[in-house]
Amino acid sequence: MTEARTGGLVDSPPVDSSAVLEALGTVRDPELDEPLPDLGFVSSLEVDGDTVRVHLRLPTYFCAPNFAYLMVADADTAVRAVPGVRQAEVFLDDHFTSEEINHGVAQRRGFQQSFDGLADDELDELRTLFRRKALINRQQRLVKALLDGGATTGELGRLRLGDLPPSPELDTYLQRRAELGLDVGPEAPLVVDTDGNPIPPELLERHLRFASLTRVSIEGNAGFCRGMLATRYDLPAPTVAAD
């Protein structure tokens, strides 16, 4: 953070609301693998000096508390990292555990402490599980584009990351790989399992079918959640992406 000292006081740079929104764009629904703003989950954003208030909403009153906690905690962390922000207040509205989550995140408590006596552990394993699904989802999007462009399954198995041209989709895939600590170097195989192992040729078609199912599941859930959110808050009907 760039700061200037004036008369012994530390002046922070003014908070840029677009920078806050951009930061929130790095926070994803763990199950849907999409940024919160894109899903319509950010209902309001207010910058008041060096304080930022964000209100989040979800498709239903009873969305899983562990998913909800992850989103609120990640949003809080992202907003606090924006230059100039000294206080972040992130609220989850209209959820049956709003009070526990909002208070726990504001007090920088973990999930277990926020739900004392009700939670068995923290959410690291859950986060890793969804990162693995996100990896397969993003890999399948790249693979599908290549297949649609005429590539064969055998060719996919021989491709390296460096063989693909730069694109936003490739950047996202590399980010998902990096989150799991997998190789993102240009010589790394394009198609790998969630541990980073290349897929043997005889298992490639089965892997691609599994990846396709994973993608359909995630996209189906995302479409369902968008529809539920629109109904709940009387929003415009979501646009169905052609594919």
Could you explain the architecture of this structure?
With 243 residues, the protein is of the alpha+beta class. Helix content is 47%, strand content 12%. The protein is built from nine helices and seven strands. It has helices at 17-24, 36-39, 65-80, 98-106, 111-114, 124-148, 153-158, 168-179, 204-233, and strands at 4-6, 9-11, 28-29, 34-35, 42-48, 51-56, 87-92. The strands form three sheets. Strands 5-6-7 form a three-stranded mixed β-sheet. Helix 3 packs parallel to helix 4, helix 6 (124-148) runs antiparallel to helix 8 and helix 6 packs across helix 9 (204-233). It is globular and about 55 Å long. It starts with a strand and ends in a 10-residue tail after the last helix. Mean pLDDT is 91; it is low at 1-8.
Compute the CA-based radius of gyration. 20 Å
Count of individual helical segments:
9
Main sheet specs: 3 strands, mixed
**Mean residue pLDDT:** 91
Order of helices and strands: EEHEEHEEHEHHHHHH
Q: Give the structural class.
A: alpha+beta
Bin the strand percentage.
Answer: 5-15%
Strand order of the largest sheet: 5-6-7
Identify low-pLDDT runs.
1-8
